[in-house]
Design goal:
Elements (H helix, E strand, L loop, with lengths): L1 H21 L2 H15 L2 H7 L6 H14 L11 H12 L6 H16 L1 E8 L5 H15 L2 E8 L7 E5 L2 E4 L2 H12 L2
Parallel strand pairs: 1-2
Antiparallel strand pairs: 1-3, 3-4
């Protein structure tokens, strides 16, 4: 994984610069994020590395696949930058790096826009007022605009877990009980 991130970095950086110059950062981010989960499947990897398929056939395969993936419109054919980017990945046998490239690209985009994606996981649904308070507190704490996505997980029992990249606040009752169990079992 660390090696893949290292290999993906220059591709993500080049794509970031291209998208920024073209003013199409949001389109690229959306398309990369839509295609990344598909590119991480064993079926995609098998097709992309099939020695019986030419580079042109692999490109055509990805373009046709992209037409079926909601949000991956940049890769659907007709976009010369996207076609050139995919050809570069195909020729350098780096097509399987698409998930890591997408992740790095979004990090670069968020840094440039001074935003961060935050996942708030709670044991139960929270009100709009609570979400607003948490969002404001996170903006203040992180010094950036935040895009909060909420999920629920009944296993937490109570409390919440906040994830913003590598930054994690685990205020769940489950976590506190696990810590107490570890201390008491010593």
């Amino acid at each position: 994984m660390a090696e893949n991130n290292t290999l993906a970095r220059p591709y993500a950086q080049a794509l970031f610069e291209l998208a920024g110059a073209a003013g199409s950062m949001a389109d690229w981010a959306e398309s990369l994020q839509a295609l990344a989960p598909v590119a991480a499947t064993p079926e995609f990897e098998a097709a992309a590395s099939n020695p019986r398929m030419s580079s042109a056939q692999v490109l055509e395969f990805i373009q046709s696949l992209s037409m079926q993936v909601p949000g991956a419109s940049v890769f659907g054919g007709g976009n010369s930058e996207a076609d050139n980017f995919l050809r570069l990945l195909i020729e350098n046998d780096r097509l399987t790096l698409l998930p890591e490239i997408a992740e790095r690209f979004v990090l670069l985009k968020d840094a440039a826009e001074n935003t961060v994606d935050v996942t708030l996981t709670t044991a139960a649904d929270i009100s709009d007022g609570e979400l607003s308070s948490i969002t404001q507190a996170l903006k203040s704490r992180l010094g950036r605009e935040v895009n909060v996505t909420t999920t629920t997980n009944k296993d937490l029992i109570g409390g919440a877990i906040i994830r913003a990249g590598d930054f994690v606040i685990d205020g769940s009752v489950r976590s506190q009980l696990d810590k107490m169990t570890a201390v008491l079992s010593k």
